[in-house]
Amino acid sequence: MEESISLIEILKIIQKRLFLILSLVFVCSVISAIISYYVLPPIYEAETQILVNQKNSGQEYGWSQLETDLQLIDTYNVIIRSPVILTKVIEKLNLDTTPESLARQINVSNADNSKVVNIRVEDESPLKSVEIANTVAEVFKEEIPSLMNVDNISILSVAKLSENPSPVKPNKLINVAIAAIIGLMLGVGLAFLLAFLDTTIKTEQDIEEILALPIMGIVKSISEKDLEIPLPSRTGSVKTSMKN
């Protein structure tokens, strides 16, 4: 059998297995919706911003000093998520967690060429995410002077709890859409797999492709109606029949 397949054959395979494809799309979408809406807990995010400068030595603040501050931002980001800071955050808030687990909830970043550090905290509780974000900033402000030569730390914005907080995770609609696409891919792939594994001969074209021989004739299927034999009636006209 030839390896190539035409567009018409592709459409025929999809049309033949359309119910299977749609079923997989539906099943994957339903499973994703159940998991997203009823299994995965909602995750809320709070953010605070801090500005960190080095201690002024009395010299004029120039480009070299600015470049040094920017290079140290990565160091500050690591310190914020370190056990030195997070252990005291846990103690202050009396959290039932470890510094390692808490570090996975915290994302520290800054824009290019900016000394403003963004601290984002994710938690299942919107109130707790706000408290952790603000406490991390406060503890960092208290501890960084003793850790590095920094004495000018400003908290630009504190995290606040909104009246109607909305979770950032999971994105239910996107999850369902992704699951539907995965179901569609699985359905189409399974349809083609079944088509290629099916080696039965169904049409005259299959015989020509497999045996490479021309079709000389076709034997038509015989139904019971074709087996009816007309019999002459007493009046000479054909009325009754008999089956073989």
TrEMBL record:
<feature type="domain" description="Tyrosine-protein kinase G-rich">
    <location>
        <begin position="144"/>
        <end position="193"/>
    </location>
</feature>
<feature type="domain" description="Polysaccharide chain length determinant N-terminal">
    <location>
        <begin position="3"/>
        <end position="93"/>
    </location>
</feature>
<keyword id="KW-1133">Transmembrane helix</keyword>
<comment type="similarity">
    <text>Belongs to the CpsC/CapA family.</text>
</comment>
<dbReference type="InterPro" id="IPR050445">
    <property type="entry name" value="Bact_polysacc_biosynth/exp"/>
</dbReference>
<dbReference type="Pfam" id="PF02706">
    <property type="entry name" value="Wzz"/>
</dbReference>
<dbReference type="GO" id="GO:0005886">
    <property type="term" value="C:plasma membrane"/>
</dbReference>
<feature type="transmembrane region" description="Helical">
    <location>
        <begin position="173"/>
        <end position="197"/>
    </location>
</feature>
<keyword id="KW-0472">Membrane</keyword>
<dbReference type="Pfam" id="PF13807">
    <property type="entry name" value="GNVR"/>
</dbReference>
<dbReference type="GO" id="GO:0004713">
    <property type="term" value="F:protein tyrosine kinase activity"/>
</dbReference>
<keyword id="KW-1003">Cell membrane</keyword>
<keyword id="KW-0812">Transmembrane</keyword>
<dbReference type="InterPro" id="IPR003856">
    <property type="entry name" value="LPS_length_determ_N"/>
</dbReference>
<dbReference type="InterPro" id="IPR032807">
    <property type="entry name" value="GNVR"/>
</dbReference>
<feature type="transmembrane region" description="Helical">
    <location>
        <begin position="18"/>
        <end position="40"/>
    </location>
</feature>
<protein>
    <submittedName>
        <fullName>Capsular biosynthesis protein</fullName>
    </submittedName>
</protein>
